[in-house]
Amino acid sequence: MLNPEPALAISPDPLKCDGRIEFNLNGRTVQVIVKLANIHLTPDNPTYPGGSWHVEGMANEKIVATGLYYYACENITESRLSFRTVVGEGDESGLWMSYVENDDQGWYSAFGFSGGQGMNQVLGHIVAEEDKCVAFPNIYQHRVEPFELADPSKPGHRKILCFFLVDPLQRILSTSDVPPQQEDWSMSEMVRAPALRELPVELFEAVADYARQNTISRKEAEEHRERLMKERAHFVVEHNEKVFELEFNMCEH
Known about the structure:
The protein contains five helices and nine strands. It has helices spanning 104-111, 183-192, 194-197, 201-212, 218-244; strands spanning 32-41, 47-48, 63-74, 79-86, 120-128, 132-137, 141-144, 147-148, 156-166. The two termini are 23 Å apart. The model is unreliable at 6-10 (pLDDT under 50).
């Protein structure tokens, strides 16, 4: 939790940590999920309305940190990436915390929120600039703030390369374990195989039918993508309601 700056300067005691505060990846094979995320603006669509507060991925992806590289920014106003953290454990509406009933002003002064408000604190932001790299742990939520074209008569864009680091201690299923599943690719590769080209048509078709059982068409892939997007959208809403935007309850104990 972050408290607002006090009125008078103080000298806090040095931070003491008996546990491990460093984790070395040297010599380890790490898994990352890679994504390209581009925002294009045009004179007909000159404004980006901003993104939603979220953490990256879901539990099965085990993402522990994110690395971003802004490799292209052109003709846009200042673009910010904001961060916030949850206060407490993210459950029980703050009933585990000690407070005086209806002490809204005290809690707002100390933590930046009061009764009836979400139990989170905004940590600040970074400015997206071309050739900038940013890395942060996945314990924080983040969102892209609104921006627009600097010159509304010309197109503009903001392009980033994302690396989502998977927990190095928990390997997950990846593309190194799953062969290509595109139906078109599978058929084109079979036609190129010398041994299969020599088969009678009937046998070739029988082998092809068997191979197709483990492939999907582009239409099927897009249907899977739509279901995935809906699942993630629901998760973001639910995660906010139950954790980051859980209302702080200052009712009578």
